[in-house]
Design a protein that fits this description.
Elements lengths: L1 H9 L3 H8 L15 H16 L5 H7 L6 H14 L3 H11 L6 H5 L10 H12 L4 H14 L9 H7 L6 H17 L1 H10 L4 H12 L6 H9 L4
Helix pairs in contact: 3-5, 5-6, 8-9, 9-11, 11-12, 11-13
């Protein structure tokens, strides 16, 4: 365990840590080492190779040692799930063991194991269960999972538009994730999503925030952007 922490601190960039802490209001600065994401991903690959070659058992111990102390440990844990899971089931078990310990939006949003694409039907059903969690970041992860895996035509589940509209949670980081989801739905599934905004059934903040984030995208044509602006709630 100490060896992994030592390797994290060897990659420390204090000025980057200062910058990144500003993106995470309320998060303890002392828990941010200051390691850039590409270096964390590289370290995850190195550790996974070492573990698989039998050169170390540090990863197994690390993955069992929850909660972690540092923000970068959480992100490294997330990347290691993608590197270490041998199949869908193992990735799911590892993810569900980790989710209750996520305590910030950045760690929540940073991982999407590619192996989850192997069984989107099971992932979808699991994400609906995560939506019911009392834990803020488990719910956010469910929403980010929907955004990441289920907005392409072949995987899109239109009923999620209504499910999120009925979620009725007060947490800022859940509602921001919903707005993010709707903005991407307006980009990728416009014809199915626009009636939700025409009906104006979302609360004012979520309705307008979703439109705002969609308007920031270069992937929506001008005519649609003009129409979206007309749908904003006063």
């Amino acid at each position: 365990m100490d060896r992994i922490i030592d390797r994290l601190f060897a990659l420390q960039d204090i000025s980057y840590g200062d910058f990144h802490s500003k993106l995470m209001p309320g998060y303890d600065r002392k828990r941010i080492i200051g390691v850039r994401t590409p270096l964390l991903r590289k370290l995850a690959k190195e550790l996974a190779r070492e573990e698989k070659r039998g050169e170390s058992e540090a990863v197994t111990e690390f993955l069992r040692s929850l909660p972690h102390t540092y923000y970068e440990e959480d992100n490294l844990h997330a990347y290691l799930i993608g590197e270490m899971a041998k199949d869908f089931d193992e990735a799911l078990v590892m993810t569900e063991a980790f989710l209750p310990y996520i305590d910030n939006w950045a760690s929540c949003d940073t991982f999407a194991p590619k192996i989850f694409k192997k069984d989107l039907n099971r992932l979808y059903e699991k994400s609906l269960l995560w939506l019911e969690s009392p834990h803020t970041y488990t719910v956010r992860y469910a929403i980010v999972t929907q955004l990441t895996y289920f907005l392409e035509d072949s995987a899109f589940r239109p009923e999620v538009l209504e499910k999120l509209a009925r979620l009725n949670r007060e947490e800022y980081y859940i509602n921001m994730a919903i707005a993010w989801y709707y903005s991407y739905a307006l980009i990728k599934q416009y014809e199915t999503t626009i009636p939700l905004f025409e009906a104006k059934i979302l609360d004012k903040w979520l309705h307008n925030k979703s439109i705002q984030k969609a308007l920031e995208s270069y992937r929506i044509e001008k005519e649609r952007k003009d129409y979206l602006r007309s749908l904003k709630l006063k």
